[in-house]
Amino acid sequence: MTRPLGTDPRLVTNPASPGLADAGQLGRRPTAAIVGGGIAGLTAATGLAERGVDVTIFERDDYLGGRVGGWQEELSDRSTVTMSRGFHAFFRQYYNLRTLLMRTDPHLDRLTPLADYPLLDAHGRTDTFAGLPHTPPWNALAFAWRSPTFTPRDLLRISGRDALPLATVSVPETYHRLDHTDASSFLEAINFPTAAQHLAFEVFSRSFFADPHDLSAAELATMFHLYFLGSSEGLVFDVPTEPFPQALWDPLASYLISRRVEIRTATAVTAIEPTTDGFVIQSSDRTRKFDGIILACDIAGLRDIVTASPDLGTEAWRATIGQLRTAPPFLVRRLWLDRPVDAKRSPFLGTGSVPPLDNISLLHRYEGEALRWAKRTGGSVVELHAYAATTKDSSGLEKALERRLHEIYPEIREARVVGEITLWREDCPLFGVGDFARRPTVTTPDPTLALAGDGIRIDLPVALMERAAATGWAAANALLGHWGLAGHPIHSVPNHGRIGLLNRLAKSKYVSGARA
Question: Taking a C-beta distance cutoff of 8 angstroms, is the pair 143, 152 a contact?
Fold first, then answer.
């Protein structure tokens, strides 16, 4: 028996489209190429393979999982460790992602809950999510009420009418209303208290690796809905009990291989040529023909492939791909230390108010491999993140991060660094002001070509890893529907505010505004 997908009775299921149960009933099984082996690509591959389509995954890196992948590194003490980009929160309302993971882990036993997600402000005050009610809007109100940076007077000063979009989110309508405004200006316009703005920025905008002045207010509002007002599961999350490959992607790879999926890692796709009955893919090792393609690569990879494939899609569609942007660079620094961190420290601490440090993760508190290393050595495994970096001076930024770490956790000021790995990356999509109308959708001008990824538009209240998974299922459904095969359901939190009166007020406001 599998674990229930979610506990929120208002969970929305968009039913699967009807069709044949297996491609074997077509006489010839269609062939499909998935370009990109991250969450979106693996989801799409699962959706197609489960309907009997012959699938090949092309992944340019030598590991699966994309930005949630992992690979082997060796420390100076000759310990072999799994490196990754670090902490990712698997929230309980990430229904489409969890549906994927349940293919190989029906009870989600390879995930474990974290009790809290504390946020530290510039004055040393801490906000906590522990012990909040789950039901909206009481969760958000309780969080604000007990926050040391959000007073009852501040709550009364918020412009309720201007703040209505936060409580009445509906996609795509919210983007039509707010996408022209940046997140920082929106919060100022509704009189959101300056002292408490770190709550919104750390929980939401920093998750997109973007400066609040560069992030669309519509994206901020959608995130607020997804995590606070749209779901009773929004503030509860899990993390993998082992590194990403062992906990998530190795089991899923085995599952896919058992369904005849060919997985080609370390194989980059360089160009795609449409033919009268499919596509020819040029990769780093050979040329192959397929009936359908799903491009599930990162923004830079998608742009490169489309640029190198002049006959792919229409000129207008190609222009939308060329306009996609990436967020500023970010740094991940992981330290293996020779002494423990105080046992009272939280496994994760948001620190975006003490730049340049955005968060501190204690991997040995939740990840098995790091825990075993810490037990064996008596040390700890600490990870530091800096988002939207304004400098590429790696050495200077690393030193600044460690100074902040020692200010916050002084007990490890004198710790010896046994091992260290630093990553610079600049490959996350930017959800900038005005970008939504130009963002490409899952479907394309060609019914046998689809897109998937967290930078691809889908008109559901989803974000980050969950958007990647939702677009993966949707891309698979697009190809399945074209071939007359049954699709897969797609889930989400409600695509409207949960408070009926506010929804009616918001609709009245925007309708009257449109008439004016």
Answer: no
Distance from C-alpha of 166 to C-alpha of 381, rounded to nearest angstrom: 38
Q: Hey, which residues does 157 pair with through a beta bridge?
A: none
CA distance 451 to 443: 7
Residue type, 35: V
The residues pairing with 119 across neighbouring beta strands, listed in sequence order, are 127, 350
**Cβ pair 204, 189 in contact under 8 A:** no
Write out the chain's pLDDT in tens, 516 residues: 455 678 888 899 999 999 999 999 999 999 999 999 999 999 999 999 999 999 999 999 999 999 999 999 999 888 899 999 989 999 999 999 999 999 999 999 999 999 888 988 888 888 888 888 888 888 888 888 888 877 778 878 888 889 899 889 999 999 999 999 999 999 999 998 877 776 666 556 566 777 888 899 999 999 889 888 888 887 778 999 999 999 999 999 999 999 999 999 999 999 999 999 999 999 988 999 999 999 999 999 999 999 999 999 999 999 999 999 999 999 999 999 999 999 999 999 999 888 899 999 999 999 999 999 999 999 999 999 998 887 767 789 999 999 999 999 999 999 999 999 999 999 999 999 999 999 999 999 999 999 999 999 999 999 999 999 999 999 999 999 999 999 999 999 999 886 654 454 445 544 444 433
Does the pTM surpass 0.70? The reply is yes
Rounded Cα–Cα distance for residues 233 and 228 (Å): 8
Which amino acid is present at 113? P
Q: What 8-state DSSP symbol labels residue 249?
A: I
* Whole-number Å distance between alpha carbons of 248 and 153: 46
